[in-house]
Amino acid sequence: MTTSPADRAGERPAADAELDQLASDFERLMRLLRRATAPDGLSLTAASVLSRLDDLGPHRLSDLAVAEGVTQPAMTQLVSRLERCGFAERAGDPADGRVVLVRATAAGRDRIRERRRARAAKLRELLAGLPDEDRAALERSLRTVDRLAGPANDRPAGRVGEHEGGTTT
């Protein structure tokens, strides 16, 4: 791999600096979303798992671990906590009796949906202070972000195409 004189001199190309800024902007957006969520006793990972189960249906524990970027033992502990709270349950896979799937209970779905409603109310307040053209620009930008993080990127690794009807096999 060759390096440019600017790289050798310790300077970084402008494109790298722009990507660094974009990453920083995304981090600020994520902090904003965390602040827009009132404390409700759910960790970020627990909320993410419940959201995934609500949006995409039952998952294998190992697929949840991969999707959330945690170890399988850590996910086992998290799912056990969600079960004790009544937010998730394990059930056999009707297609393969050897497989155990994790799914959100009605209480878990209610909890994550209430969390979303509370966050939406807070965001509504924040967005109300923006001019119409800024809100429109934000909406366009979020559609682009949605394409980046769309359904194919929500599926557990190695399971693409196996979520027909919102379930994982």
Share in helix? 55-70%
Mean pLDDT: 82
Q: Note the beta-strand portion.
A: 5-15%
Distance between the termini: 43 Å
**What's the total count of β strands?**
3
Descriptive keywords:
169 residues, disordered C terminus, 62% helix, 3 strands, three-stranded antiparallel sheet, mainly alpha, globular
Secondary-structure topology with pairs:
Elements: H1 5-8, H2 14-35, H3 44-56, E1 59-60, H4 61-68, H5 72-84, E2 88-93, E3 96-104, H6 106-128, H7 132-148, H8 151-154
Antiparallel strand pairs: 1-3, 2-3
Helix pairs in contact: 3-6, 4-5
Brief sketch in words of this structure:
Residues 19-147 form the HTH marR-type domain. The protein is mostly helical and 169 residues long.
Give a structural overview.
With 169 residues, this protein is mainly alpha-helical. It is built from 8 helices and 3 strands, in the order H-H-H-E-H-H-E-E-H-H-H. A 3-stranded antiparallel β-sheet has the order 1-3-2. A hairpin with a 2-residue loop joins strand 2 and strand 3. The chain is globular, with a radius of gyration of 20 Å. The chain starts with a helix and ends in a 15-residue tail after the last helix. This is MarR family winged helix-turn-helix transcriptional regulator. InterPro entries: HTH-type_Bedaq_tolerance, HTH_MarR-typ, WH-like_DNA-bd_sf, WH_DNA-bd_sf. It holds the Pfam family MarR.
